[in-house]
Amino acid sequence: MNTLDYYNENAKKYFDNTINIDMSKQYELFLKYVRRKGKILDFGCGSGRDSLYFKNLGYQVFPIDGSKELCTLASEYTGLDVKCMNFLDLSDVEEYDGIWACATLLHIDKKDLLKVLINLRNAIKRDGSIYVCFMNGYDEEEYKEDGRYFNDLTKESFNSLSSLSSLQIVDYLESEKIEPNKYWVNYILKRK
């Protein structure tokens, strides 16, 4: 089983486990950098939780996900057309005021991460912003027992990767610890 297989086979369980997570601090961090009622790409929308939140605030939301099953659930939940696509295939140019990539890039193989960041940079408008989050780590790559791939990056290594993609970190938030030494790191990126 690989990451995509996991999310297709466990879509309902994942939906139920994530739909009510409080993301208010992350929303606040992101939305202060996004034009009011602008266009937001939800890059890896999962359950659709965040897409619905942004939609209800009046933003134009364009959700995508790699899992066909999650796309179906998210479409039903949000009333939005959720596009199923490989994250490497994003080709939009200066289309979005904001891109929300919540717990998405951590599933991208490290060898493809720079390409994805460049694609995200190309997809935002000149004054647009990108939100991404990772689990803190020591530049580790691992496959979980359930088959999912994760890359955990240090702030320094992510800063270097962002710089290579002509992005810069303009804001940063550490979420509360999930376990000892495990917490989410949240970044806001803008074009250099």
Compose a concise summary of this entry.
With 192 residues, the chain is of the alpha/beta class. Helix content is 34%, strand content 32%.
Describe this structure in words.
There is one protein chain. This protein is α/β, with parallel strands linked by helices and 192 residues long. It has a single domain (3-191), classed as Rossmann fold, CATH 3.40.50.150. 34% of the residues lie in helices and 32% in strands. The chain contains seven helices and nine strands. A seven-stranded mixed β-sheet has the order 3-2-1-4-5-9-8, sandwiched between helices. A two-stranded antiparallel ribbon has the order 6-7. β2 (60-65), α5 and β3 (83-84) form a beta-alpha-beta unit. The model has no long low-confidence stretch (mean pLDDT 94).
Structural topology:
Elements: H1 3-9, H2 11-18, H3 24-31, E1 39-43, H4 49-56, E2 60-65, H5 68-78, E3 83-84, E4 96-101, H6 110-123, E5 124-135, E6 140-143, E7 149-152, H7 155-164, E8 167-179, E9 182-191
Parallel strand pairs: 1-2, 1-4, 2-3, 4-5
Antiparallel strand pairs: 5-9, 6-7, 8-9
Features:
alpha/beta, 7 helices, Rossmann fold, 7-stranded mixed beta sheet, 192 residues
Structural class: alpha/beta
Name of the CATH homologous superfamily: Vaccinia Virus protein VP39
What does the overall shape look like?
Answer: globular
Q: Provide the number of structural domains.
A: 1
Number of strands: 9
The helicity comes to 25-40%
Average pLDDT number: 94
| CATH T-level topology | Rossmann fold
Tell me which CATH architecture applies here.
3-Layer(aba) Sandwich
CATH class category label: Alpha Beta
**Main sheet?**
7 strands, mixed
Termini separation comes to 39 Å
Beta-strand percentage?
25-35%
